[in-house]
Amino acid sequence: MRYFVSIGGASGSIYGIRLLQELNKTGHEVHLVVSEGAKTIIQHETKYTYNVVKTTAHVVYDNDNLYAGPASGSFLLDGMIVIPCSMKTLSAIAHGFGDTLTSRAASCCLKEGRKLILVPRETPLDLPGIKNMLMAKESGAIIIPAMPAFYHKPERIEDLVDFIVGKIFDQLGLKHSLFKRWK
Ligand SMILES: Cc1cc2nc3c(=O)[nH]c(=O)nc-3n(C[C@H](O)[C@H](O)[C@H](O)COP(=O)(O)O)c2cc1C
Question: For ligand 1, atom 22, which residue shows the shortest CA distance?
Fold first, then answer.
């Protein structure tokens, strides 16, 4: 299986980093793009740097590289995850803008009927953000907001992050024990 992870410039880089770490354990092929904004936010919000994060992927692209494989629908992917997804990139994806590798690859996933998971993070939500989520959903994307639950009794920030990563694994059909299931 081959997955494409895009870490965007919303708050919550740790969600993307934990997803990469867990995907790595599965042995599947992981391709990665980190937006320019996200490179700085990773450094600001986490104990990681971009240089460390990129070692967890098999192939790494720049977000302005529209010649990269995932920019074409003929490049086979078993799923793409934009995590966290900024409102800007959500808008580009919802409207098929295709200006970055992330938004172009996401459009390719939608047009080819491949799994596209978006993890938007913003609060409060403005009307364009809500409408863009609706439009992306109607186009076939799966929306998993960075909105962890509490019924698994989280004790650490990692437990909250892993809940979201586990929900992504569920959508990808990958087994995990990232959170305790209800009953
Ligand atoms: C520290 C920081 C935190 C940010 N958090 C968010 C956020 O949570 N959600 C969001 O939509 N944009 C957020 N932004 C703004 C985005 O980084 C900005 O809109 C950027 O153009 C997004 O582009 P990208 O998705 O290509 O990274 C943040 C910016 C900074 C500097």
Answer: 9
User: Is 45's C-beta closer than 6 angstroms to any atom of ligand 1?
Assistant: no
Q: Six-digit token pair at 11?
A: 């708050």
Q: Whose CA is nearest to atom 9 of ligand 1?
A: 10
Relative to the CA of 129, which ligand 1 atom is closest?
Answer: 11
In a domain? residue 183: no
Task: Give domain status of residue 44, yes or no.
Answer: yes
- State pLDDT tens for residues 67-124: 999 999 999 999 999 999 999 999 999 999 999 999 999 999 999 999 999 999 999 9
Residue 66 lies in a domain: yes
DSSP 91-127: HHHHTT---SHHHHHHHHHHHHT--EEEEE--SSPPH
Say if ligand 1 is within 6 A of residue 88 CB.
Answer: yes
Q: Which domain holds residue 113?
A: 2-172
Q: How many Å lie between the centroid of ligand 1 and the Cα of residue 8?
A: 7
Domain membership of residue 147 (yes or no) is yes
Is residue 77 within 8 A of residue 2, CB to CB? The reply is yes
The whole-model pTM stands at 0.98
- Number of domain units in the chain: 1
Q: β-pairing, 29-34 with 59-61? A: parallel
Residue 38, domain CATH: 3.40.50.1950
